[in-house]
Write a structure and sequence with these properties.
With 505 residues, this protein is an all-alpha fold. 79% of the residues lie in helices and 0% in strands. The chain has helices at 2-17, 24-44, 46-66, 74-86, 92-101, 103-117, 120-133, 137-154, 157-176, 180-183, 191-224, 232-241, 245-272, 284-299, 303-325, 330-345, 350-355, 360-379, 384-392, 397-412, 415-430, 435-449, 460-467, 469-473, 478-504.
Length: 505
């Protein structure tokens, strides 16, 4: 009897420890998935068993992203990735190949995000000035969308997103660290009433930050499609087609310019009419706290702090020049920023430097797990029927098919993977010289950049925002991101179809 009680207690401890504080139903769902996947694979058998099990794992992995606020997706997603490897749906060599092919993105995350961490004082100062000087929420939102688009066309969407997240975290910390007297200054009310007012202001401020961050990351998609360096798959498409930087921009301009204009108009409309969670205004109490903090920073600006801001400004200028001229891989540029800033600001303690990497490391690990799933898709040719469908289309229908299916597959997997597969298949089938091949390349580029905003897993910048700590703080869930991206998805996808059609006519 004691042994039975002991074993029961141990099993309870084991189950309670599994995935920590995640809901019971979520733990059960993950365990059920891990049990049912091999049953499906070996029960059906053959290529059909691999295909069905592969789609099951892909859907389950997307589910872990959708429930990121319940449990960080690295844990359940990683278990699925390990299972897929054990079941032979992807090989260790295939995983290594995917990691090797995406080493640039991994270096970017590890070093660029950490580099931005050491520039937070400067970013906070600049964006506080912008936030307090532009009182119109509509124009402030348009500014964030445009800045995201402009910077992403020359730099990198993940870098731009990291900057915006750093700014949002700085604002969030400034407000949450303020006293109740600052958050609810009306002392004629009771403490309970003041706490309720502060809570309402906090909810509005969270919504305000959600709005700005969503506008910003959508902006990265708008700018990302327009240039050769905007997204990783753009470089691959340009390389396959033999297009130079200017040539790529001109090939895309008839779509990218209207898309940018419609994107900015969409920003104005969703804010004006408060569509799908937009339209939150910054409360006066919050604005006053941010202003007071800016004044305090100015008053406390001694020689050391001025030097630190100057050093960060020099680091920022170097960052922009190096990225715009592509003097080195993005991650290596980020590492140079870390070394320069820490050396010039005297941050030589290992713990101080290590703290900067805390934000990027979990997402980098998640991205490796994501590459396992992408490797599985490639290993068992999960998307082969859809790819062949696009290649089998003839005449005017072919570019439409490339656009639709590259967008669809990008939304459920990864735009870089889909763009790479499609452009290689298209070039092999069509060559590079014909107008048909050119139209296909344009359609693939537009398809992987714009419709992929429909889901957070479609673009790395969206996924980075979803899995960042700021998302939970401002209640930005997977489904809320899908909902808030939906107006942009509709207007921008329609715009792409219209102007792609216009060019082909």
């Amino acid at each position: 009897m004691p042994n039975q009680k002991s074993s029961t207690a141990l099993s309870n401890i084991a189950f309670n420890s599994f995935m920590g504080n995640s809901p019971l139903w979520y733990k059960q769902a993950v365990l059920f998935s891990l049990i049912i996947n091999p049953i499906i694979l070996f029960g059906i058998g053959g290529e059909l068993g691999q295909t069905v099990a592969g789609w099951m794992i892909l859907i389950e992995f997307i589910g872990t992203l959708a429930l990121a606020l319940r449990c960080y997706p690295l844990i359940p997603g990683g278990l699925l990735a390990i299972e897929a490897t054990v079941m032979g749906l992807v090989t260790p060599a295939g995983i290594y190949h995917e990691v090797e092919a995406n080493l640039e993105v991994i270096l970017l995350l590890l070093f660029m995000v950490a580099g931005i961490h050491f520039m937070q004082d400067l970013l906070s100062w600049i964006f506080t000035k912008i936030l307090t000087s532009i009182r119109s929420k509509i124009w402030l939102s348009v500014t964030f969308t445009f800045v995201g688009a402009f910077l992403s066309a020359w730099l990198d969407a993940l870098t731009v997103t990291a900057v915006m997240i750093a700014v949002a975290i700085a604002f969030y910390n400034i407000y949450t660290s303020a006293s109740l007297d600052d958050r609810a200054p009306d002392k004629s009310k009771s403490n309970d009433e003041r706490k309720e007012l502060a809570r309402e202001d906090f909810e509005n401020f969270s919504g305000f930050l959600r709005n700005l961050l969503m506008h910003g990351v959508v902006g990265t998609a708008l700018g990302g499609m327009s240039t050769q360096v905007g997204e990783p798959q753009n470089l691959i498409i340009a390389s396959q087609m033999g297009w130079s930087f200017i040539e790529f921009y001109l090939k895309m301009a008839h779509v990218s310019i209207p898309v940018l204009i419609v994107g900015l108009l969409t920003t104005m409309l969703v804010e004006k009419f408060k569509i799908v969670g937009y339209g939150y205004q910054i409360p006066d109490a919050v604005r006053n706290i941010l202003k007071a903090n800016a004044v305090k920073m100015q008053a406390e600006m001694d020689g050391k702090k001025r030097w630190h801001l100057f050093v960060q400004a020099v680091g920022g200028i170097w960052l922009i020049i190096a990225l715009a001229l592509h003097l080195a891989e993005v991650g290596l540029i980020g590492l140079s920023v870390i070394i320069f800033l820490t050396a010039m600001m005297g941050k030589i303690d290992e713990n101080t430097i290590g703290h900067a990497f805390e934000e990027a490391t979990p997402f980098t690990s998640l991205l490796i797990v994501f590459f396992v799933i992408v490797g599985m898709i490639e290993h068992i040719h999960l998307f082969k029927p859809v790819i062949e469908l696009a290649l089998s289309a003839k005449g005017d229908a072919q570019p439409y098919t490339f656009f639709v299916f590259s967008g669809l597959l990008s939304a459920i997997s990864d735009n870089v993977f889909v763009g790479t597969i499609y452009i290689k298949q298209a070039v092999a089938a069509l060559g590079t010289e014909s107008m048909q091949a050119e139209n296909a390349a344009i359609a693939i580029n537009v398809g992987t950049n714009i419709p992929s905003i429909a889901t957070p897993n479609g673009q790395a910048a969206f996924l980075f925002l979803l899995t960042n700590a700021i998302a939970a703080r401002i209640k930005l869930s997977y489904f809320r991101m899908v909902l808030m991206a939906f107006p942009y998805f509709i207007t921008l996808t329609i715009t792409c179809i219209i102007f792609l059609t216009w060019q082909w006519l």
